[in-house]
């Protein structure tokens, strides 16, 4: 398992050292708009705990953290008004998944057709 880097950009956002455009916060997650949005709605949801990736989170987070995170993602999408029309969740994971920031996050993408799933 890759070790958690406490200086990654999302850890610094969580500590308030770097600003973000916050859309939701609760005991388990912080959610904010992506700095480089790829869709009309592009929100990043991150757990408050120190998890590198989906691999780390799914293996090591508590049931409460996993439930809190999953509930929050759905709540944020509904609050953004994109649930009924539809949206896509992406969790880029480690090197082959194209993950750039090593703090687990889910991208919520929507606000219109998101396009083909993945191309090679
Ligand atoms: P990844 O490739 O790791 O799944 O995605 C990382 C995402 O974080 C990218 O979509 C990138 O635009 C976003 N990002 C990187 N740095 C910042 C930042 O400082 N603030 C915000 N709001 N988003 C960031």
Task: Kindly provide the radius of gyration, computed on alpha-carbon positions and rounded to a whole number of angstroms.
Answer: 14 Å
CATH class: Alpha Beta
Number of helices: 4
Number of strands: 5
CATH superfamily, called what? HIT-like
Order of helices and strands: HEEEHHEHE
Q: Architecture, CATH level 2?
A: 2-Layer Sandwich
Ends distance: 27 Å
Strand order of the largest sheet: 1-2-3-5-4
Q: Into which percent range does the helicity of residues fall? A: 25-40%
Structural category is alpha+beta
Largest sheet features: 5 strands, antiparallel
Could you please describe the fold and organization of this structure?
The protein has 120 residues and is an alpha+beta fold. The chain contains 4 helices and 5 strands. It has one domain (9-110): HIT-like (HIT family, subunit A, 2-Layer Sandwich), CATH 3.30.428. Strand 1 (22-25) and strand 2 (29-33) form a beta hairpin. The chain has helices at 9-14, 54-60, 63-79, 94-97; strands at residues 22-25, 29-33, 41-47, 87-90, 106-110. Strands 1-2-3-5-4 form a 5-stranded antiparallel β-sheet, with helices on one face. Residues 9, 18, 20, 32, 34-36, 44, 92, 98-101 line the site of guanosine-5'-monophosphate (5GP).
Could you list some keywords that capture this structure?
alpha+beta, 5-stranded antiparallel beta sheet, 4 helices, binds guanosine-5'-monophosphate, 120 residues, 21% strand, globular, 5 strands, HIT family, subunit A
Offer a quick outline of the entry.
With 120 residues, the chain is of the alpha+beta class. It has 4 helices and 5 strands. The mean pLDDT is 97.
